[in-house]
Amino acid sequence: MGAPPTLPVKERDAVWTVFVIDPLAAPLVARLGSARSITPNRLTVLSAVAAVAAGAAFAAGPLWAGAALFQLSFLLDCMDGKLASARGRRDPAGALHDTIGDCVRLAAAAAGLAVGLDGEADLAAALVTAYVGIRFSVIAVAEARPEPPAPPARIELPARFGAFLRAAPRRSGLPGTTVDTEAVAFTLGPLLGLPVIGLAIAAAVDLLHLLVYVFAAVRAATARS
């Protein structure tokens, strides 16, 4: 058997992505490399379908099924870009499709979890609203920064589970990214039977990110005055 293909990936990425998702996504992408009927855009569509199914599972139960489908949606979302890179193709609309898929996944999971937690309806609704609002605020402020960060450096790794898992510690960024908070809110919390606590932790971490951005903006404005 020949050496596995290599895949270009971000040199630094979210903790959840590098330790949990990428080691699964990479070998799957390698297997799909020659399957021309499976395209990056079709994976994006499947990711959105899985996201809607996750929302339905959160609403109707059991919560573990919603958590599993949520991560299936995220796995497919991570695979589409890797598959495009592996085939040397760049779709100008790929970023738009990814953003739409991310929004569908967050909205479906949040709405489904709010419905499913009917036993704690008031608190759950308040936390879901706070988390989603803060989550989008963090994204909007990050996108509006006058000096956005440079595109992340990329490295190539063999498309094997073990290779990606061994590389995870050196690829891992600081914990608490939006990917990590989504994992807490829509996967770890529901799986552990603590969905409300998961939402509260995710909202608090994202609020901290937002306050850091606000503090940096105020400090920059003060320095210019």
Please specify the SSE layout and strand pairing.
Layout: E1 6-10, H1 15-32, H2 40-60, H3 63-86, H4 94-116, H5 121-144, E2 154-158, H6 161-171, H7 178-191, H8 195-224
Antiparallel strand pairs: 1-2
Tally of DSSP helical segments: 8
The beta-strand count equals 2
* Biggest β-sheet: strands ordered side by side in the sheet: 1-2
Give the overall shape, derived from the CA principal axes: globular
Which structural class best describes the helix and strand composition?
Answer: mainly alpha
Mean pLDDT: 87
Number of separate domains: 1
What portion of the residues fall into strands of 2 or more residues?
Answer: under 5%
At CATH level 2, the architecture is: Up-down Bundle
Q: Name the poorly predicted regions.
A: none
Order of helices and strands: EHHHHHEHHH
Helix content: over 70%
The N- and C-terminal alpha carbons lie at a distance of 65 Å
CATH superfamily annotation: CDP-alcohol phosphotransferase transmembrane (TM) domain
CATH topology: Four Helix Bundle (Hemerythrin (Met), subunit A)
CATH class category: Mainly Alpha
**From the alpha-carbon coordinates, what is the Rg to the nearest angstrom?**
18 Å
The biggest beta sheet reads: 2 strands, antiparallel
Brief rundown of the structure:
With 225 residues, the chain is mainly α. It has eight helices and two strands, in the order βαααααβααα.
Architecture overview:
It is a single chain. This protein has 8 helices and 2 strands. The chain is mainly alpha-helical. The chain has a single domain, classed as CDP-alcohol phosphotransferase transmembrane (TM) domain (Four Helix Bundle (Hemerythrin (Met), subunit A)). It has a two-stranded antiparallel sheet with strand order 1-2. The longest helix is centred in the C-terminal third of the chain and has 30 residues, at about 195-225. It is globular and about 55 Å long.
